[in-house]
Design brief:
single chain, 163 residues, alpha/beta, 4 helices
């Protein structure tokens, strides 16, 4: 990545609005305390929130490889030459870790920082909250629908503005 004042070029999926990818820009800007802008998968600095690692198949080996921080896979890909295409510093969970074939690596979805973006805690209305991937939402019973076309933070209550 470039100097601390340059925007981080972050790849997130924007073809179809969904909650996790919409969080990516805000979470990364908050954690890095740097401006963030969208970057194409082929030339970005960072992959973070979302099931976006299959897009690494478009990244060719380059000196300034993108960093993978907590992303996951939505579908498989050949990872045999991954170390020439990206620097993986964290994986979303044990399935991604196993798929990547990296034993000692921190695990966790950067979306866990989302609550840091809120002005105040959101009152709990249910015991469990599930935010399915948009392609899997139809399999769950409807309780409350999040409008995936709007910012997830405006849905929950905004603290920081990043857009």
């Amino acid at each position: 990545m470039n100097s601390n004042s340059d925007p981080v070029k972050l790849f997130w999926w924007r073809e179809k609005p969904n909650f996790g990818d919409a969080l990516s820009q805000g979470v990364v800007a908050h954690v890095l305390r740097r401006p963030v802008e969208w970057g194409d998968a082929k030339s970005c600095d960072l992959f973070a929130v979302g099931s976006i690692l299959h897009r690494l198949d478009t990244v060719v080996a380059r000196e300034d490889r993108p960093v993978v921080w907590g992303s996951g896979f939505m579908k498989g890909m050949d990872t045999s030459d991954l170390e020439t295409r990206a620097d993986v510093v964290a994986a979303r969970g044990p399935l991604t870790q196993s798929f990547l074939g990296i034993r000692k690596i921190p695990l966790g979805d950067p979306g866990l920082f989302a609550s840091d973006l809120l002005e105040a805690p959101v009152p709990r209305r249910w015991r469990l909250g599930v935010i399915p991937h948009y392609s899997q939402a139809r399999y769950l019973p409807k309780r409350a629908e999040i409008d995936r076309r709007t910012s997830p933070i405006s849905t929950c209550g905004r603290r920081n503005s990043w857009a």
